[in-house]
Design brief:
The chain contains 12 helices and 18 strands. The chain has about 450 residues and is of the alpha+beta class. A 7-stranded antiparallel beta sheet has the order 15-12-14-13-17-18-16.
């Protein structure tokens, strides 16, 4: 373990090292146990600047953490410095009429939802309240209202970024437009985004339906799920999980309807009831914060070891069959399906560093110990061959092959060039630019 120099005055009392009773709760991420030399806990933007300068002076690896929920576990490290933004957690409605909200990077989405609820506002922002704002809002943001609202990054109007040299920059569409472009989808390699200005949407209550449906082995149920979503009004978004069930599987669907009444919500959910043998269902009206509740908040101590990959695709018969093989085959993976399309696909593919604006489904595959990457690769092969894109926040093995799926073609060239421009020494450079590990399966990630 490295010996750290004394921290400068602004950071006195804000570094946690081994032996400190707080270290056990700060050393790791959700998926990975780590042993950093120290964890810095800045409380202001000025202290983030001081933290960056101090960390660079130590000559040690630097990790940046907003929530620690990232599947790759890269928001901590071994033997280096972690800049933990959890104390930068303020949420402020700066213009109620314009629905403009300033959110600091260390806030958790459960707190954001609770803070905005009295204003009748919400930000569609993933599906778990313990996720930190910074990682999600620089990667994409596939939330509970994704088909109506789009991605979280599509509603970011400005950012405040600490660059690797300690410079603080405000970026928006008119000022530093290249930095503004790259932090919406590929922010991890450009600097530390300490705050976002995000345009929220007017939402108080939503329809929440839980359905359990027997999924046929030939993929027909999965295909019909995607078809119903493609035909549905944008108010309907869904996330589903496939669980093995004998020779078939159970498709457990959570459907969210951006509607203020059950009278409006129920007809939108009804077509999903007929895609397979219905095992159970119910529909309720709930406040939006119930989707990302404060009860989700917990420390991250490496408790959920797993290996995850994903792909974006336009569902067809072949894709649906490949998904079912991944769930019921010899190397079984936990497979999640998330509806995209709708408002996501209204955005020009070149507008942000997230270029995937034509697919209708995000498929996520996960295995848990003792299964590892080999088992996931075997289960995932057929899906990967049909995917034509991927999402950075659901990849636990970042390397160059993953980079090429997440940021294909001209997008990837622009991302890599901007990472070099804003961080020429590679202080924050993600492992996505590391050589690929040669995983099989075509365009799979």
């Amino acid at each position: 373990m490295s010996t750290l120099a004394r921290v400068p005055e602004p950071l006195t009392g804000k570094i946690v090292t081994p032996g400190d009773r707080r270290y056990a709760l700060l050393r790791s991420t959700y998926t990975t146990a780590h042993s950093p030399a120290g964890v810095l806990l800045p409380e202001t933007t000025a202290e983030v600047v001081a933290a960056v300068r101090y960390a660079r002076e130590q000559g040690l690896p630097i990790a940046v953490r907003s929530g620690g929920h990232g599947l790759a576990g890269t928001s901590s490290n071994d033997g280096g410095i972690v800049i933990d933004l959890s104390a930068l957690n303020r949420v402020e409605v700066v213009d109620e009429r314009a629905r403009l909200v300033r959110v600091e990077a260390g806030a958790r989405w459960a707190v954001v939802a609770k803070t905005l609820a009295p204003y009748g506002l919400a930000i569609s922002s993933g599906d778990h309240g313990n996720v930190g704002v910074g990682g999600l809002a620089t990667g994409g943001g596939v939330g509970w209202l994704v088909r109506r609202y789009g991605l979280t990054i599509d509603h970011v109007r400005a950012v405040e970024v600490v660059l690797a040299d300690g410079t603080l920059v405000r970026a928006d569409a008119e000022h530093e437009p290249e930095l503004f472009w790259v932090v919406r989808g590929a922010g991890a390699g450009a600097g530390i985004v300490v705050a976002f200005e995000i345009e929220a949407t007017e939402v108080r209550n939503v329809g929440l339906a839980q359905l359990a449906i027997e999924a046929s082995p030939d993929g027909a149920t999965v295909r019909q799920w995607a078809e119903r979503l493609a035909q549905a009004p944008r108010e309907l978004s869904t996330a589903a999980v496939l669980f093995p069930h004998g020779r078939s599987a159970v498709l457990s669907i959570t459907a969210v309807v951006a509607a203020e009444s059950l009278r409006r919500a129920r007809p939108l959910v009804e077509p999903l009831l007929a895609i397979g043998r219905l095992l159970d269902h119910r529909t309720d009206l709930v406040p939006y914060p119930a989707l990302v509740p404060l009860g989700h908040l917990h420390p991250n101590v490496g408790q959920q070891a797993s290996t995850t990959t994903n792909g974006l695709l336009t569902m067809d018969d072949g894709g649906a069959r490949a998904i079912m093989r991944a769930v019921t085959g010899p190397e079984r993976a936990l497979v999640q399906l998330r509806s995209v399309g709708g408002a996501v696909n209204d955005v020009d593919p070149d507008a942000t560093a997230y270029p995937h604006r034509h697919q209708d489904t995000l498929v996520v595959g996960t295995v848990f110990p003792p299964q590892g990457g080999g088992a996931l690769d075997a289960a995932w092969r057929g899906i990967g061959q049909r995917a034509d894109g991927a999402y950075v926040n659901f990849e636990s093995r970042p390397d160059r092959a993953a980079f090429d799926r997440i940021y294909p073609g001209a997008t990837g060239r622009r991302v890599a060039e901007l990472w070099r421009r804003y961080d020429p020494d590679g202080v924050f450079r993600p492992r996505l630019l590391d050589p690929a590990h040669g995983r099989p399966g075509g365009r799979r990630r």
